[in-house]
Amino acid sequence: MLQLEVIREEKARIVAALRKRNWNNTQLKAIDQIIALDDRRRSGQKELDDTRAEMNRMAKSIGQLMGQGKKEEAEQQKKAVAALKDQEKGLEENMAAIKHDLDQLLYSVPNAPHKSVPKGKTPEDNKVFKAWNKTFPTLPADAAPHWELAKKYNLFDLELGVKLTGAGFPVYRGQGARLQRALIQFFLDEAVKAGYEEIMPPHLVNEDSARATGQLPDKEGQMYHCTVDDLYLIPTAEVPVTNILRDEIVAEKDLPIKMTAYTPCFRREAGSYGAHVRGLNRVHQFDKVEIVRVEHPDNSYKALMGMVSHVSKLMAKLELPYRILLLCGGDMGFASAKTFDFEVWSAAQQRWLEVSSVSNFETFQTNRMKLRFRDGNGKIELAHTLNGSALALARIVAALLENNQTPEGIQIPKALWKYTGFKMIK
RNA sequence: GGAGGAGUGCCAGAGUGGUUUAAUGGAGCGGUCUUGAAAACCGUCGUACUGAAAGGUACCGGGAGUUCGAAUCUCUCCUCCUCCGCCA
Prior knowledge:
This protein folds into two domains: 4-108, Helix Hairpins (Orthogonal Bundle); 123-425, Bira Bifunctional Protein, Domain 2 (BirA Bifunctional Protein, domain 2, 2-Layer Sandwich). The protein has 13 helices and 19 strands. The chain has helices at 4-9, 11-20, 25-67, 71-108, 146-153, 158-164, 175-193, 207-212, 238-243, 300-317, 364-369, 393-403, 417-420, and strands at 127-130, 156-157, 171-172, 197-199, 204-205, 225-226, 231-233, 249-251, 257-266, 285-295, 322-326, 338-346, 351-362, 372-374, 380-382, 384-392, 405-406, 409-411, 424-425.
């Protein structure tokens, strides 16, 4: 969430930034409400503290009187404290209500887009940051979409997934399963080579973790929730990995902290059905290697470009046509200050598929999770967090299968040979 | 799952109702000494809210309660340890 002090001190900038997310005047009233509530919180805190200070003084004096055996006087003072106690209780309730309202408002405000983020309302308004200026693959006359190729070569089975679980849970098998494992290992190896520490986190997280990275309360319905144990299946490795540093104060010299993890990702994707979600285009469970960075605020935008460059290299090594979009204010995720999306060209479907999203969250997550660092002067500051998919598998697989199909079989890019153990799916 | 024990600061560890303002030791940081280092000695050493500052307030696993006053007593939840059961 946004920092209160930033909202107070840089209100004009925040308001302008939220307009980029197409916030109207009615929505923007939340900002003034936040400031008004914070004023009430401050004065209420002072009043409560003063009352408690007085109670503490009297308690101490009662203790002394008892010690001196002055029971009468002590009893009198006890009666005087009773009135203060009622007052304290009232003030506490008042403060709890104010804090509750303030939190609700703060949780409802998305991150302020960076000044370089373009205006816009829909995905059509995203800016092409890097276009694909080479040729697209030429396919044979009988080119098939990936879900047909999957049947032909026995690579994955969605209907079998329905039997085992439900719609959107693919069962990978044979060379298809091997390709999954190869891609995961390739992505992890590349991330480790780039200096990221490999992490294997839990695939379920508690409510605190889900709130810290911004999944709760904003995307409650997106996650699978195990209600008996009150745990959430992770929608991305970002959640457990970033939370490793929750409530930590790290040394400035330890920045940046770079971590990578492979996990399956679970998303309910409620309400999305139809032709555009066929095959692996949108599924409830998919595999992804994520990269996460904790950065010094001065370096976070440089780091963002570093991550974009890392993902670009992966695309190049997989020999896939791709483009990079700079998301407009209207299309960005709730917690992000700036996001680049990677889209891969899916040749048989003749459409772009999103395969990576690389974002700088600035202090939006670290403010929620109290992830800070101590600078050279001993001052404690919020760090910046960033993350990106490097990469999400399901759609990469879709594109690989479609783009590389030949009458003889599906060609595997060279970079994967040592992981797959085969050069061609037959 | 059952029985018992335990959770205190960066770490170790004292404190079972009132000068506790959480002792003490270690680590860390600053300094003295030294060619440098070690040792010794001196100092410093939590976080948050509030306040211009001085200061005030809260926090001893989480939450609730008893009391004029709680790290300390009660309830509840969580975690860890020991034993038993089950188990890849």
